């Protein structure tokens, strides 16, 4: 259904099973990138992630939006407002924690639409910057973020103790 229009809307409780499945994809992908850095997916990761995202619905400092195509949820974005941080040497900022689109629905504009909607929400909160982190090996996501105007500012490094 590549020609169907993408609708971005606030997530609701009825979306949580799909969001849990998509969030679990994100956990699994990151764990595959680096199993010593990223948490291993638990047996009930879908339910756990759905419960977590459900706890963020309606929070003043958090946003969970879904992308729908043809009436089906194909992706989501989870963002928040993070306070000023001396530790990170940054002012209050919007932070995109998750953006994920179902593999069968990628390359149709859903991730871009979700990211732009999250940025608009950050602006509506009178916050000047939107930040995110991306796995070093996730070059496809990095290309998307660069196309959307993001620039690299920090590099996280990990060492096994």
Give an account of the 3D structure.
The chain has 161 residues and is of the alpha+beta class. It has a single domain, classed as Gcn5-related N-acetyltransferase (GNAT) (Aminopeptidase, 3-Layer(aba) Sandwich). It contains 4 helices and 5 strands, in the order βααβββαβα. It has helices at 16-33, 45-56, 110-124, 139-147; strands at residues 6-10, 62-69, 72-82, 93-101, 130-132. It has a 5-stranded mixed beta sheet with strand order 1-2-3-4-5. Helix 1 (16-33) packs across helix 2 (45-56). The longest helix is centred in the first third of the chain and has 18 residues, at 16-33. It is globular and about 45 Å long. The termini are far apart. The relative contact order is 0.16.
Question: How many separate domains?
Answer: 1
From the 3D coordinates, which CATH architecture would you assign?
3-Layer(aba) Sandwich
> How widely separated are the two ends?
48 Å
Which consecutive residue ranges, at least 5 long each, have pLDDT under 50?
A: none
Q: Count the strands?
A: 5
Output the CATH topology: Aminopeptidase
H/E element string?
A: EHHEEEHEH
Summarize the biggest pleated sheet. Answer: 5 strands, mixed
Query: What does the overall shape look like?
Result: globular
Strand content: 15-25%
Radius of gyration: 16 Å
Mean pLDDT across every amino acid position: 96
CATH class category = Alpha Beta
What structural category characterises the helix and strand content? alpha+beta
Major β-sheet strand ordering: 1-2-3-4-5
* Portion in helices: 25-40%
The H-level CATH homologous superfamily, spelled out, is: Gcn5-related N-acetyltransferase (GNAT)
Question: How many helix segments?
Answer: 4
């Amino acid at each position: 259904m590549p020609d169907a229009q993408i609708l971005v809307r606030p997530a609701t409780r009825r979306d949580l099973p799909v969001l849990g499945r998509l969030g679990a994809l994100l956990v699994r992908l990151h764990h595959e990138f680096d199993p010593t850095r990223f948490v291993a997916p638990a047996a009930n990761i879908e339910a756990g992630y759905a419960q977590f995202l459900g706890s963020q619905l309606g929070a003043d400092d958090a946003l969970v939006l879904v992308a729908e195509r043809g009436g089906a949820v194909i992706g989501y974005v989870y963002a928040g407002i993070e306070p000023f941080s001396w530790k990170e040497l940054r002012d209050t900022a919007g932070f995109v924690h998750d953006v994920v689109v179902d593999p069968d629905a990628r390359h149709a504009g859903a991730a871009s639409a979700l990211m732009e909607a999250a940025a608009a929400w950050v602006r509506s909160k009178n916050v000047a910057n939107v930040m995110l982190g991306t796995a070093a090996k996730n070059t496809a996501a990095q290309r998307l973020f660069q196309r959307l105007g993001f620039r690299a500012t920090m590099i996280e490094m990990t060492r096994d103790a």
